[in-house]
Predict the 3D structure of the following.
Amino acid sequence: ACALAVLAMTANGRSKDLTLARGNDSLPRAMAARVELKLEAPVQAVEATPDGVTVRLPSETVRADAVVLATTASAAARIYRAGDRIERELMATPYGSVIKVGLATKRDWSDDPGLRNVWAMMIPRGERRQIVSVTIESAKDPERVLKGGEMLNLFVTPDNAERMMDWPDEQVVSAVAADVERLFPGALAAKQFTRVVRWREGMPKSPVGRARALAEYRRTRPRDARVWLAGDYMGMPWLESAIETGTWAASRIVEG
Ligand SMILES: Cc1cc2nc3c(=O)[nH]c(=O)nc-3n(C[C@H](O)[C@H](O)[C@H](O)COP(=O)(O)OP(=O)(O)OC[C@H]3O[C@@H](n4cnc5c(N)ncnc54)[C@H](O)[C@@H]3O)c2cc1C
């Protein structure tokens, strides 16, 4: 369903996928520049009462009419303990771990006809070993790589990512080396540097029944609800969907 949603967003592949030139974090940075923001302020508890919400931080307590709770699911479950059945079910959404091995090379694959206009690929399940997908950064934005070089972002399969989560970087890189070489022969010999990045809760999973729970949540939330859940686990695992869940929640509060 997620793959079909992406196809729908790109008019069945006729229009181009776009990316943010200065990286995905430029979006939250741009938004942060326009609103009042508190950094290093971990919320410890969100408590709803009939006339508002109390948000407890280590050194202060904030009162609000309503809250859009947009942390990851597990963090939401920790700080918002009074959730009802459907909220608890959604806040229990499991995540897959993600490890990305960024490999900067001194050569590129731009002359490979099979890779023309390809910025990302998934390895079919039957052919998968350690790597599940690859993005080719120069195809997203040539400015991201040095001339004549390439930046391959290689994503380790979720089960391997879980297994390798606490391994040192060098061990992760050597564990995926044979698979990298199989997919991009010569890439390691042309290596400039590697960078390993880990997300223990990288991508929300979608167990059977989750979409039904989401539909029920949207259908049944009372208009005067004080706490509204948002984030990619409340929709699909990408930026546009995460934003849509937040704007949906905010518009319910405003209409309230
Ligand atoms: C490797 C990788 C590559 C990706 N690439 C893409 C891509 O190219 N395009 C795309 O559209 N999507 C991509 N995604 C998915 C995208 O990053 C997510 O869907 C999106 O960031 C989800 O946004 P969110 O606001 O729901 O959650 P998050 O971005 O996870 O934000 C949750 C926030 O809650 C904060 N938080 C947690 N606990 C507390 C607390 N107690 N108090 C206060 N704050 C708290 C966290 O610090 C965090 O900032 C990628 C994801 C990964 C892991």
